[in-house]
Amino acid sequence: MFKNFRQDWMSNVRNDVLAGLVVALALIPEAIAFSIIAGVDPKVGLYASFSIATIIAFMGGRPGMISAATGAMALVMVSLVKSHGLEYLLAATVLTGVLQVIAGWVQLGRLMRFVSRSVVTGFVNALAILIFMAQLPELNPQTIGVTWHVYAMTAAGLAIIYGLPVITKAVPSPLVTIVVLTIFSIWMGLDIRTVGDMGELPDSLPVFRIPDIPLNFETLKIIFPYALTLMVVGLLESLMTATIVDDLTDTRSDKNRECVGQGVANIATGFIGGMAGCAMIGQSVINVKSGGRGRLSTLVAGVVLLILVVFLGEWVKQIPMAALVAVMIMVSIGTFNWSSIRNLREHPRSSSAVMIATVVVTVATHDLAKGVLTGVLLSGFFFAHKVGQILRIRSLAEDEGRARTYTITGQVFFASAERFANAFDYKEVIDKVRIDVSRAHFWDITAISALDKVVLKFRREGTEVEVIGLNDASATMVDKFAVHDKDGADDMLTGH
Amino acid sequence: MTQQDNKVLACVDLSPYAQHVADYAAWAAARMAAPLEFLHVIDRHPALQGGQDHSGALQANAEQSLLKSLSEQDAARTRAEREQARIFLNALRERALAAGAAPVDTRQRHGDLDETLHEQQAGVRLFVLGRRGESAHSTQRELGRHVEQVARALNRPILTVTDGFKAPERVLIAFDGSSITRRGVEMVAGSRLFKGLPVQLLMSGKASQDGPKQMAWATQTLETAGFDVAGEIVPGDPESTIAQAIQAKGIDLLVMGAYTHSPLRSLFLGSKTDDLLRSARIPTLLLR
Hints:
The complex is a heterodimer of chains A (496) and B (288).
Chain A lengths: L1 H9 L2 H26 L3 H18 L7 E3 L1 H14 L1 H20 L11 H23 L8 H20 L5 H16 L28 H33 L5 H17 L5 E3 L1 H9 L5 H17 L1 H5 L3 H15 L3 H8 L2 H17 L2 H21 L2 E8 L4 E10 L4 H6 L9 E11 L2 H16 L3 E5 L3 H10 L7 H6 L2
Parallel strand pairs in A: 4-5, 5-6
Antiparallel strand pairs in A: 1-2, 3-4
Chain B lengths: L6 E5 L5 H16 L3 E7 L19 H37 L5 E7 L2 H8 L3 E7 L15 H8 L4 E4 L9 E4 L4 H12 L8 E5 L7 H14 L4 E5 L4 H12 L3 E5 L5 H7 L2 H8 L4 E4 L1
Parallel strand pairs in B: 1-2, 1-4, 2-3, 4-5, 6-7, 6-9, 7-8, 9-10
Antiparallel strand pairs in B: 5-10
Helix pairs in contact in B: 1-2, 3-4, 5-6
């Protein structure tokens, strides 16, 4: 236990602290931007980022992963905030946490194996597109306060973000962007939209408070669907990110502990007036890139973030939205999986279809859970189709034309049952049919009833049928569900 | 694997101290007529990878390019270390063969030192471990950071060695009548490791009632096994009495029970074993 403690917290102090600082500075613009996406005051996202990062540092299952207020979660909340307001969002956040803790206890994380690589790629691509789209209102000439200055500043911001690392990697370039653009706009006295126009910023440390909502069934009916979606999206992104960090650092993580940790973090966050969040792919990559590996990096990120915004609130207010937009465009470019576009042609068409379907459904519904569900269902469908192809039926006349042996090889289940049933020649005049299934597997009741039908159809022609070589697993399916080897089978087929 | 059973496993890193580990391991293996294996563990600790990039910017395909660069760094480091260690281990092997141990095998493994040793311990009769290693110059610690971790992870005797090799001639058993040291006495009696060496038994600490009885049993056991034994009960602080006995009697190998208390206790109160290992500058056989 102590060894783990030392390993998780103390093995990499200098790098963890430095990386935590870099992440804290990168988190501030994102937390503000995601609050704006969700339609709440920037302080809701900033408090959330502080509380989630700090709690996950202790409770999470993946040291070195960064969790905070995220775009994926913010997108889900939009309509709840619009229709019912902040208090319902806080209640939904607490409920999300409760559901996530339960999910961790029942080890729901294991379901992640059904989320294929194509779905994951679709998820991050859709997320990148949505984050980018959320910046468009700030660049829309129809929005009040958007002048040519905004475009110029956004362009300048992007130039600094991508240009500065070429010269030096010692300072975070997004931070330099924000500082330079803020000073420039104050100095020039530009009348453009700033973070202060977007709502309240934190002016104190967060305090505990219970969401101001009626505790009744009506409320539950409103928040439960949102909480459920938030739970799914939060765990999906967190577990995905955990896998990414696992790969990057070549270490293992405790996925169930991560689920419970996310839940606890969200419960606590709801009670201090923060919005639900989860792990962040981009920030975790930044953390690892900056040398962060241990829990200390996450803790430093959370604590430094709060200190900065509480004490520098007056300055944070002055940040022009153009600077924030530049940072978020960087986040969206960094999140998008660009090689997936090149891979569209190289990968199997079904995989590409799953990826594109996930993106399209997500972007259309603004709901990552629906997108992922579509992707998972579609990949299951494609898989069933492919495995259904693995079925070969050969036949050979024997015993001087009195008998015929059908040899079945492959998988018989709902997707291949019809092909299986159609492969027999029922009109053939013959004494005996032998069906050799020793190299086949009967997976479900559709397959069993198909076999039943085949057997009964032959019997009605007066042909004797023998099924040989049912392997053990298939045999249990047949024992449980088949009718042809029980009395009165023929009657059942004809409906009497 | 049966051939590998009951081997002496010498854990070495690429520091000059490995020479002494090799000498003692060869001495022990030769005396016990046991096979000797040199093990070098490449601990590719992820936290050791430096992060120089504090730009905080996400380039396109940031994740893929980071994964690529990190795994390339790892690969390059591992390859270099593997080759270096192979040459080093072969030199140690030659040295051990020259000292009369046979057969001598070498092995490199990836992983965490204590986990690796724990996995290996089924076929091991004796571990040999340097008390200090590669990082000895860069820290103030007199005792390498791995010693306690490793000793706690294992339940085989561990010979921890210091600088310089001198074939042990006089053995001191720090005997306190506990079950662990009684087992130690039985082990010494039954093993060929100390055959023919004079053995000194020392009981210290608070005088206990059945001390003399225990001592008589231990002396008896060792005498029966053909050892030249002298037993002594010296009340007083174990650390100083043992140190004095080593000085006075020219002892060059100490046998004692190790880390019998919980890790928590040793975190707050320090460990008697650690103190003894620091003060006794001779090879020490830790009994678990």
